[in-house]
Amino acid sequence: MAISNIVIGLFLITFVVTTFSSNFYQDFDITWGDGRAKILNNGELVTLSMDKASGSGFCSKNEYLFGKFDMQLKLVPGNSAGTITTYYLSSVGDTHDEIDFEFLGNLSGDPYIVHTNVYTQGKGNREQQFYLWFDPTKDFHTYSLLWNPQSIIFYVDETPIREFKNLESKGVHFPKNQAMRVISTLWDGENWATRGGLVKTDWSQAPFTASFSNYYAQACVWSSSSGSSCSSNSSENQPWLTQIIDAEGEARIQWVQKNYMIYNYCTDIKRIQQGLPPECLQY
Ligand SMILES: *[C@@H]1O[C@H](CO)[C@@H](O)[C@H](O)[C@H]1NC(C)=O
Ligand SMILES: *[C@@H]1O[C@H](CO)[C@@H](O)[C@H](O)[C@H]1NC(C)=O
């Protein structure tokens, strides 16, 4: 009896897709902010707030090696100039990997910027920035990061806005060996966030608050003792593990990039003069 339970337990750990729907108490630790980050509604909601003394943040208990991570965010309303709300994946150390969503606040009525970046082996400089096609402070919207060995895809309400392909064959590092945690923070970025730092944070509006709900991870949990919870045979149950952008997805990315992209490192004149990164060339 005991043995078969252990066997079943191991079987589950090794082969079953690990999916989590949100209970923030279960999935996250508050890591920063001295009471400014709050888990509410029995674990269904987190609010992060920031005032002049500090921002705040939380971090997943698990480390993951690949996954699709959905989070609903409602961003700081009103005058959010200078504030940066983040939702990202990151490993640790000098040669860390990181996959970022950063939401740059603005004066009331002026558009937020969604800033995206991909770090590999400690090196970023791969920014793409977008406006949104809705007001991200009015309602919750879903922001997703898909990360598998072939591709990294950023989604807004299931619309792909960016893909970073695995181009190791062209000499571009791709994050696939370092486990990452899911992290969210709210912090003061007045030196660059709003109109490049021209508009500062108005502290008379503090505290600033962003809300998070419905975290959903379909992911391979990593542990140093037992490795990844995904086996190479289980990809049938885990379409996200092999998913890449298809023709339809490519058309949607083109639509977003044509209508909403406001900065792309691949078309930055200064960068081009230094030589374009290989992933920016068309293959
Ligand atoms: C804020 O609004 C200004 C004016 O519309 C715009 O140029 C800028 O891109 C907006 N977003 C940020 C984060 O600066
Ligand atoms: C995958 O399945 C094949 C054939 O059933 C088996 O030989 C192999 O060991 C499996 N690999 C893993 C990682 O489970």
UniProtKB/TrEMBL annotation:
Q: Where is the GH16 domain?
A: 18-212
Q: What is its EC number?
A: 2.4.1.207
Residues with glycosylation annotation: N106
Keyword annotations of the record: Apoplast, Cell wall, Cell wall biogenesis/degradation, Disulfide bond, Glycoprotein, Glycosidase, Hydrolase, Manganese, Secreted, Signal, Transferase
Q: Which residues form the active site?
A: E98, E102
Maturation and modification = Contains at least one intrachain disulfide bond essential for its enzymatic activity.
One GO term under biological process is: xyloglucan metabolic process
| SUPFAM superfamilies noted in UniProt | Concanavalin A-like lectins/glucanases (SSF49899)
Naming one, the record's GO cellular component terms include: apoplast
> Which superkingdom is the protein from?
Eukaryota
Quote the InterPro entries the UniProt record gives.
Beta-glucanase-like, Beta-glucanase/XTH, Beta_glucanase, ConA-like_dom_sf, GH16_AS, XET_C, XTH
Molecular-function GO term, any one = hydrolase activity, hydrolyzing O-glycosyl compounds
Signal peptide (residue range): 1-21
Q: Give the matching CDD domains.
A: GH16_XET
Main subcellular localization, coarse class? secreted
| UniProt keyword Transmembrane, yes or no | no
Q: Where in the cell is it found?
A: Secreted, Cell wall; Secreted, Extracellular space, Apoplast
Q: Which Gene3D superfamilies match?
A: 2.60.120.200
Record's function text: Catalyzes xyloglucan endohydrolysis (XEH) and/or endotransglycosylation (XET). Cleaves and religates xyloglucan polymers, an essential constituent of the primary cell wall, and thereby participates in cell wall construction of growing tissues.
> What protein family does this chain belong to?
Belongs to the glycosyl hydrolase 16 family.
Protein name, UniProt field? Xyloglucan endotransglucosylase/hydrolase
